[in-house]
Amino acid sequence: MSNGKWWAPRVRVFSRTSNSIQWRLTLLICLLLLTVVLAYSWVSYSKIKQASIDASKTRLESLSTQLSNIFSQSAQAMVSATRTAAAQPAIKQFLRSGGRDSIPAVRKALQQLLQDTTWTLALLTNTKGEVLLSSDSTRTAPSTADIVLNLSAPRPDTGMIGKIYQVDTLMYYPVTATVFNNKEITGYMVRWRKMQTSPQAVLQFSQLLGEDVTLLIGNTDGSLWTDMQKPVNAMPADLQQVNKELPVYTRSDGQQLLASIKPVNHTRWRVLTDRPYKKIVAPASAFLQMALSTGIVIIAIGALLAWMISRSITGPLQRLAIATTAVESGNYGTAVSVESRDELGQLARMFNAMTEKVQQSQKNLEEKVQHRTAQLEATNQELEAFSYSVSHDLRAPLRAVSGYAMMLKEDYTEKLDEEGNRVLHMIVSNARMMGLLIDDLITFSKIGRRESQYRPVDMKLLADTCIQELQPLKGNHNLTIKTGNIAPCYGDGNLLKQVWMNLISNAIKYSSKEKNPVIEIGSRMETDRVIYFVRDNGVGFDMKYSDKLFGVFERLHSQDEFEGTGIGLALSKRIIHKQGGEIWADATKGFGATFYFSIPSSGNAPNNTQLS
Amino acid sequence: MSHEVEILLVEDNAADAEMTIRALRKAHLSNKLIHLKDGVEVLDFLFGNGAYSTRDVNQHPRVILLDIKMPKMDGIEVLRNIRANESTRTIPVVIMTSSNEDKDILASYQLGVNSYVVKPVEFDEFVKAVGNLGLYWLLTNRAVSSPKAP
After folding, report:
1. Total domains present in chain B
2. Alpha-carbon distance A416 to nearest alpha carbon in chain B (angstroms)
3. Could you give the ipTM of this predicted complex?
């Protein structure tokens, strides 16, 4: 296979390699593998992705719930502490009196509520939220009216933690409690606390949240979001609404995140935990990459194996194809060697057996053809020898008979009586007749052996030439020859001229006893042949004997009536048949005869044949 | 110019020979005629071999009338020998034969025959043909002179 000989015919047999089975099989297997790899990778990727998202959802959900609970508990504790403080008799008395008496004692009580530095201010307001007394009159605070209104609206009997407010870089939130006097609201206590988270708490939170998860706390109206150390930039608008279940949102920095939001009880806050979407699907993406690269390796191995397998199939097929081409060009020596025991091996063995048989048959056939050809050649040679000896050996003694009779006549006429001279004359005329018969017979046999020269023939010109050459035959007769349209044909001009000569001379001969002899010559076209005719108004013949018309030396008239050897029509028939045509006649005794012959249109002309 | 032999008739058939001679005699052309019966004899005569070893080979006949079908050596072979030899190449040769075969005619002309005559079966025509032939070749035709013509 490594030598150049193997490749050369291969290129010839499979000139379009892209069509070869070897390529197509490999391609098919690669496509199959590719489909499997892609389908498997995609399905797995989708499942892993969904599972990751689901896990993240659950985790975020649980985190925000937990955190919400923690913050709620803390808020409740602060609120109940404030309520306890607000229930002191001095404070109650102060508000019942409308804030006019015991100011110093009440202020002292308020200042005692500022337990550490995170508590910055404590206030008492009337029911409208107007500040009656402050723990530190020098400090200002956001308007307490809306805080109080917010508080009193839903549940007047409870306390609550209000919205987070930003003052410079610091954040504060109010803890509010209602002050009663026999179930009648007399005012409110508001304690402001700075939002401050210790590093320890931050660490705890981050441990609880884990990597990638961010915790944010914000007001329910969306006015502020913070990571509990500083306010963070504006969140997307769709997150301003609570209860939107685990939305995926795009943060202002362009990052996509999965988020969970929960409200915090006893406050106007809510908790948000989020995690970058990319991080969630990262395992799925990593898996997809791995699956695809594994797939590529599998496809490559598959392609290699497919190539090897298909080669083991197409290799023998190619050898078969080469051998078939060789057989086609006549080289039967090419046996195909396929050792495999599979179908291909069987095919190759059958092919070899078939080739052998074909070769044997061809050999037998060739031998037969050679044998027959030799026989034919021998027969042909015998015929030629026969014809030669007829032409030479038969004529010599005939000439002698004729010659010596004439010598006798010349030298001994006076010594012979009338009867003797008549007998001599009969000898001479019969010898002459025999000479004519021999000549005709030789001509007849020569037609068959002659190799025809097929060319376009101007039949009109040929017929006219014959009429011209036959002029002497016309004698003194009042003969009219009408030539109509005579179509050209494809054939052997010399032989066709003999046909015209025979038919026209016959027409002249057999109409010679008419008063006004008329001969018509013409042709008509048919789909695949041309029909020529020669018509005379002569003696005609009985159609009963028409089958004898074209036989050798057959005559329908006696030698006394019309001279002739009876070879002309037989010769014409042989010539026309040799050119693939037909010859026939139509006549009525006493009313003339018409002779027809057909020549196939060019293309239907027979091959040159030496023997007919 | 005078020739030892004017007509060399080569004919194995006695009847044809007799008729030919009779026809030539009628035309008064048979005075210097030699009749030979086969090809070998012709070559012996022309090249002075065998029985003709004493003959002056430079004396050429004015015309050779040659039959084709003969025993030992046929007319075509005789013609080939005559045309192959420098000294006899220019002698006029007329094939007279019963054969009307195309291959004989072709072979004869290819070997440079001067005339090819098919003997007519009819005696009248035969006599006429031979007479015309003799007259043409002996009286009308001007041949190459023999080297030692007196």
Report:
1. 1
2. 20
3. 0.76
